[in-house]
Write a structure and sequence with these properties.
Rossmann fold; 232 residues; 21% strand; alpha/beta; 41% helix; 5-stranded parallel sheet; 2 domains; 4-stranded antiparallel sheet; 8 helices; Arc Repressor Mutant, subunit A; binds calcium ion
């Protein structure tokens, strides 16, 4: 590991300590913020590579921290730590911009493997796509070297996960791709509980951002019984 900085946002000391020890043992540098305000300060000052975010914080919710981060233009991967599975839709919500979640109680091994997968796809991918040419499909332009998407000339704000998903679908245009393949390629892990739902939620968000009518998509179509296909 190259010692990336991970910001743990968690008000319970014991929980934060557990995560901290586990991440340090894996070679990460760890920053800890106890409140939402402290998290935003650390984020601005210390430029962490990834943020783990608890939802229940003393001063503001993890949702508000997440929204504020994205509104301020921070695009680091966010791993939400949620108490209940029902919160998943909200956690991965469009206005929220979190990239993945783990439901408490979680195993530390699960959290560190999710963190590794998130870092790999956010940064390994960006480094690897440096020379690629922009792709154009109708009004949609995907520019891998700048990790930018434009629709009718207007910039579209995507999270790193959404960008990677869209780019992967686009470079395999016209070919149906299964949810399991997308999970493995984009999220970096085997299909597990809730995994396919993660794919569906992100596809829904992408459609809201790039489709004129998300209910009858022009670019990302559903292939019944299989998964999704990008139409060039
Ligand atoms: Ca808490």
């Amino acid at each position: 590991m190259t010692g990336e900085r991970i910001l743990i946002v968690e008000d319970e000391r014991a929980v934060a300590r557990g995560l901290e020890y586990s991440l340090q043992a894996d070679g990460f540098q760890v920053l800890w913020a106890r409140t939402g305000q402290e998290a935003l300060q650390r984020l601005r000052a210390d430029d962490p590579a990834l943020i783990t975010l608890d939802i229940r914080l003393p001063d503001m919710s993890g949702y508000d921290v997440c929204r504020t981060m994205r509104a301020e233009g921070f695009r680091q991967p966010i791993l939400m730590l949620t108490a209940r599975d029902e919160e998943v839709d909200k956690v991965l919500g469009l206005e929220m911009g979190a990239d993945d979640y783990v439901v408490k109680p979680y195993s530390l091994r699960e959290v560190t493997s999710r963190i590794r997968a998130l870092l790999r796809r956010a940064y390994g991918y960006l480094a690897a796509s440096g020379e690629a040419e922009p792709m154009r499909f109708g009004e949609l332009e995907i520019d891998p070297s700048r990790v930018a998407v434009r629709l009718s000339g207007e910039s579209v704000e995507l999270t790193p996960t959404e960008f990677r998903l869209l780019h992967h679908l686009a470079i395999h245009a016209e070919r149906p791709i299964t949810r399991a393949t997308l999970l493995e390629t984009i999220w970096g892990y085997d299909s597990d509980i809730g995994g396919e739902r993660t794919v569906d939620v992100h596809i829904r968000h992408l459609r809201t951002k790039i489709e004129d009518d998300p209910a009858t998509p022009r670019y990302i179509v559903t292939v019944r019984g299989i998964g999704y296909k990008f139409q060039g």
